[in-house]
């Protein structure tokens, strides 16, 4: 299960849920008609995107993954209810893609929150919460360096040395820097290409 206080996954069904939360789970209308094109807000680039329908083969994959789960190893809350069971029973009725199909919990998602009682939700969001790892200064600086809005500029700086002081590459010390550099090299290769696989096309 994944907690994320800063990410919000928006879905059409979420509009059917009240923003208020009581001690009883809200009822969600799963039989309401869903339009072919649903617009949602992307928190990453502030652009509108369409949440696609979940292909039948993907839904079968969700069912297969759930069937492999061992009940005794599921996350059993103090109430006795199992988190995976609750998510599956709801997610299998959703027609559009949702983080719930991957059994992922986003703490800020109203839809997911509505499936649980108040004390259950508190238990979920406070159990074994881990702090985000702190990035090393060198990694932060490299990410800032590559954060440009000019493709040609990115293509130039991606070949500049990312290991300072002329040091030789040491996997233990420079693996993260090498990884960041490789990712941006790959992105720069596709940017500006009409067949750019980074851009979703309907």
Notable characteristics:
7 helices, 3% strand, two-stranded antiparallel sheet, 2 domains, mainly alpha, 202 residues
SSE layout and pairing:
Blueprint: E1 39-41, E2 48-50, H1 56-68, H2 83-91, H3 110-113, H4 118-126, H5 137-146, H6 151-157, H7 171-190
Antiparallel strand pairs: 1-2
Helix pairs in contact: 5-7, 6-7
Order of helices and strands: EEHHHHHHH
Overall spatial form: elongated
* Domains, number: 2
The CA-CA distance between the termini, in Å, is 30 Å
Strand content: under 5%
Describe the structure.
- By secondary structure, the protein is an all-alpha fold.
- It has two domains: 115 residues, no CATH class; 54 residues, no CATH class.
- Helices cover 36% and strands 3% of the residues.
- A two-stranded antiparallel ribbon has the order 1-2.
- Helix 6 runs antiparallel to helix 7.
- It is elongated and about 60 Å long.
